From TrEMBL, chain A:
Keywords: Cytoplasm, GTPase activation. It holds the Pfam family GDI. GO terms for molecular function: GDP-dissociation inhibitor activity; GTPase activator activity. One of its GO terms (cellular component) is Rab-protein geranylgeranyltransferase complex. This is Rab proteins geranylgeranyltransferase component A. Coiled coil: none annotated. The keyword Calcium does not apply. InterPro entries: FAD/NAD-bd_sf (IPR036188), GDP_dissociation_inhibitor (IPR018203), Rab_escort (IPR001738). GO terms for biological process: intracellular protein transport; small GTPase-mediated signal transduction; vesicle-mediated transport. Belongs to the Rab GDI family. It is found in: Cytoplasm. Substrate-binding subunit (component A) of the Rab geranylgeranyltransferase (GGTase) complex. Binds unprenylated Rab proteins and presents the substrate peptide to the catalytic component B. The component A is thought to be regenerated by transferring its prenylated Rab back to the donor membrane.
TrEMBL record, chain B:
It holds the Pfam family Ras. GO terms for molecular function: G protein activity; GTP binding; metal ion binding. It is an enzyme of class 3 (hydrolase). Belongs to the small GTPase superfamily. Rab family. It catalyses: GTP + H2O = GDP + phosphate + H(+). One of its GO terms (cellular component) is autophagosome membrane. It is found in: Cytoplasmic vesicle, Autophagosome membrane; Golgi apparatus, cis-Golgi network; Golgi apparatus, trans-Golgi network membrane; Lysosome. It comes from Daphnia galeata. Its cofactor is Mg(2+). It is a lipid-anchor. Keywords: Cytoplasm, Cytoplasmic vesicle, Golgi apparatus, GTP-binding, Hydrolase, Lipoprotein, Lysosome, Magnesium, Membrane, Metal-binding, Methylation, Nucleotide-binding, Prenylation. This is Ras-related protein Rab-30. The keyword Transcription does not apply. Gene3D superfamilies: P-loop containing nucleotide triphosphate hydrolases.
Amino acid sequence: MAYDIPSPCDLLVIGTGLTESIVASAASRIGKQVVHVDHRNFYGSNWATFSFNNLQNILGSKSLNKDSTKTVEETQNLNINLNSNTICNIVEKWYLPDEDVQGNIDNQKNLEETINKVPKETLTKSEILRDSRKFNFDLSPKLLYSRGEMVDVLITSGICRYAEFKNVSGIYTVDNVKRTLLSVPCSRADIFNSKDITMIEKRLLMKMLSMCVECETKPEELKEDEMGNFGNFLNAHKIQGKVKKYLIDAVAMATDSTNFHDAVKNIQKFVRSIGRYGNTPFLWTLYGSGELPQCFCRCSAVFGGVYCLNHSTQTIVIGSDGQATGIVSDNQNLKAKFILIEDCLNPVATIKSGISRAILVTNKALTSDQAALITFPSVNSKDPVRILELSASTMVCPQGFYVVHLITHQVTTAVEDLKEAIDTFFTVFESNKNEALNKPQIIWSLHFNINEYNSPAGMLPSNVYSSPGPNSSIDFDDHVIQARNIFKSMFPDEDFLPRVPDPEDIILEGSLEDVLEESKENHKEAQNIHE
Amino acid sequence: MEDYKYLFKVVLIGNAGVGKTCLVRRFTQGIFPPGQGATIGVDFMIKTVDIDGLKIKLQIWDTAGQERFRSITQSYYRSAHALILVYDVSAQPTFDCLPVWLREVEEYASPKVLRVLVGNKVDRDDREIPPAVGEAFSRMNNMYFIETSAKDCSNVDKLFQEIARELIQTMRNQRQETSQARQPGTIARTPIPMTGPLVNMRQLTLMAPPKSPGQNPTAASLDPPVL
């Protein structure tokens, strides 16, 4: 059952991360022949979502990969960098007894039950792994602004029909001294009902929000502040205390030193997004953020895109004119007009920075929300840590568990960068200790770093594009914009992801012809009768 | 908007060339063969069936060719109410692949999904898989079983009719259970019930506001945005 990969094609995409998948769907959508390959056996590359078992398999194969060396051929062709360890510094920890111990406990339990004692509440590793598929762990968890670029493109393209979402129900920052959560009021009603801030503070907060939103229409009013950073701007307006924390940590998703314009843009997006689907500006993708690249891939496939996972790619072939002519993939020459390659595979890309990530499974919630976004503010001019706490209703874990994602900019390693935030809110699981500490306990944790790459301009043939992998921002919008730019640069006069016709409105060639022929025959018959 | 009582999502899987698209086209449009290229741009097909006087809308999803290189997106399986696994009775390899497909189903589809095994192309005289073998496999894997031919149309309507009937039954049973067990004020988390026109009761489905007036009843009662 050999199926041929179409060659030549219009666009060959290497890697099934988000940016690549968006471009692939946009090109298929306007009738271009797209071939989309990935050497991995799963969708999403560094944006993927894994069940417990799949994650363990991936981690296993990662460590195996480490020793493999690449043979570099001395040709003008570019070798695709399959061995880049984009995900590194992996530390996995269980805080539970494993199955051997469980056997004993089970016996013990039975024994205890027979003598009518209350059985001890225990939890084991194998019990959790039995529910493997109910866990959905994101490598790169992200949220959608309800009126951001991602939601826009999902709606206008119709691709939203492939996914489901839930509102993030709470947004928090952290009190610097007490180290407790501070709920950030989002809507006007929330602000005026808040018991955490005074009436004067409420007015100030409202005033600042209006000012930032209005500077879209009245930019002249803010001229004097434009030079400075966001922290200076707030100081100039005598904004302090909780209001300042709300604005910097949550509303602007910024730090003191963030450029004023970027902060204001975020504030505008935040305010605009409130109330569209709920009380906070954010949506979470059910089953994990890794669903989204797949939604775009499905759209591409529906419009004729050809998908090959588990398909290794060796080199980008360069023609005599310096343009790429195609790639060598599984010893097959695939010709293409354009090539898009994710930057961790890009032969000329260099590591520019990284993301520090942790995934925790806990037994208790920090908040009462189905999904919560917590900002652990910057300490010692490090970047803030964004924490996502997700409950079972977001389809990332079984009932009774919580998945916590921590994301920050990499300084040293994930373990060190996130230690303070984790220690503040969580403790490790110890089955024989009483829960006197009251903190959620960590049952399992995974730390890792994801590299971010720089693709220097002019180093690739002009028909080869490099697309960015995940960054440390909390939303997808940068990547949607970059995907659109790549698409526009390949196909300047074409629409970017126009609406997909509603399947119920499609009249298919076959059926229409049948109907026409039938009506023609009926017509003839009618004429015959007449004659 | 067309009037119907329930909407169910049915997805087809199985090796390339076993006749998945033909089954869908035969059922929804009564045509065979569907003609190549016609699948471009078609996400799913819709057909309303009548079960004991109830109008049931079936949304039938095809693989969009992603099965050719074994690259089906996991999201394809999510929220499916019924899953049809198709093999070709005249091609042993398509039958041998069934366990691989089932592993994927176990991993990504809801555990409550209705699973149907279909041996297609029974019109052919070069059959390799006897009905008993298919049936035994289905029984072992706790699936429904039927043999069809998209070409001569045998059992095609029956396949989908039975699925609709079965899904209604499952839903009725579940509804009874949940209405007894449910606490007032909590939201049912059963995967099946989807009442009314495409309003997903469980979670947000993104819809463009002008296309969905009043689709999000909670949004209307919320306070207006800050400014």
